[in-house]
Each structure stands twice: as C-alpha cells, then as structure tokens.
Amino acid sequence: MALQEEFEQQGSWLFRYRGILPIVILFVAAAVYVNMELNPEKFFLEDTPYEIYYEMGCLLVSLLGLFVRMYTIGHTPANTSGRNTSQGQIADTLNTTGIYSVVRHPLYLGNFLMWLGIALLTGSVWFVVVFCLAYWIYYERIMYAEEQFLRRKFGSTYTEWAEKTPAFIPKFKLFIKPSVSFSWKKALRREKNGILALFLIFAAFNVAGELVENQADFNYFLVVMCVISLVFYCVIKFQKMRRKRRKI
Known about the structure:
248 residues, mainly alpha, two-stranded antiparallel sheet, 9 helices
C-alpha cells in the first residue's frame, strides 16, 4: 500500500476513535499533576504567591481554545467542511470564510489550545513536549484524511483555497468576513460538553492538589464556574429532551 493511502486509512481510523486521546492525556496529566504536588521542588512556582497566576494563565490558554471552537461553530453553516460525524465526512459546500479563511483546521487548533492549557497546568516541561508531539502525530493523519476527502469532492476549488490557507497556524491577514452571522445558540449547544469538561477538569485538579497537600486553600472561582457550567449543561440537556418529546 502506498504511503498516501496508508496515511488516509490511518486518519479515517483515528477519526473514529479520536475521543481516546483526550482520555489518555487526562489520566496521564492527572498523575503528573499529583506527582508535582507531592514533590513541590520539581516546579519552581509551587507554593509561591505566583502559583495562582500561573494556574489562571493555563485556564486562559484553554479558554482561548474554547473561544476558537465556539467562534468556528457559531459561524459554520450546516453540512459544510466544518461538520463531521462518527459515520464519516459531511460537506455539501466548502467553508472558506471567517476563521476558515485564516486556517484550514480551526476546530483542531481549538482542541489543541484547550488541552495545552491542561498540559501546562501539570507544571512539567517534558509532559508538555510529549503532549505536543502526540497531538501532532495523532491529528496530522486525521487532517490528512479529511483533506483527501475535500480534495476529491471539491477539486480545484479546494486546492486553490488550501494553497493560500495554512493548515494549523492562522494567517490573520487573509481574514474574510464570515458568510453567515454568529449563532450563540448553536455554539453553546454544541460546546456545552467542552465548557463543562474544561471547568470540571481545572476545578478537580485544584481540589485534588490541595487535598494531596492536606490543605484547603481551594480556588473557589474554579469551583463556582464548575457548578455554573454544570447547571448550564443540565438546562441545555433538559431543553433538548423536551424538544424530542414534543416531536413524538
């Protein structure tokens, strides 16, 4: 099998099981974080007044990733190149405006930033490096498979757009106004899981770190935001259930 076909097959397979990598990252990151809390000498900001600022800085990195995802989804029309399912690729039209005018894979960029914040939270340089390499190898093949699908479907329209638009690092001077207006409803509905997971992970890490050190100096901002995001998640799920019942 030629390397081109092999990469595409690997990418399609990895896309179907793309939820596994975040779980692995989370468990390893939790172990590294607890180890750092037990051995504060390994992290130069541990037990210093600046630790809280570092923690919030990591949260800002993850929130930036969440913003990228919400901005992308909020401006993405139905069944464009920005919408894929577990069954495969869906693309009735090629999305080339808005954030897709500056980067070809904004959702994966958003994912990277969200998980980069969590990786940075561990305070371990080697873990951040390993995370970046793992993400690169894993998602490079997924992006390759998606681009092969789009190339076959849209031909020269796709290649002309891809030639000038970077794959992962945005080129902001290429920005073109989105073709559709932003939808908060769609963005919040689609990203409710990410919002809850983000604040839940940061709050859980903070609480676990304090308990490991036999302390109770919790970051109550994270705890409160975790509770708020949980309530928001439940409200959205409840509304979805009501809509389904009305259709029956």
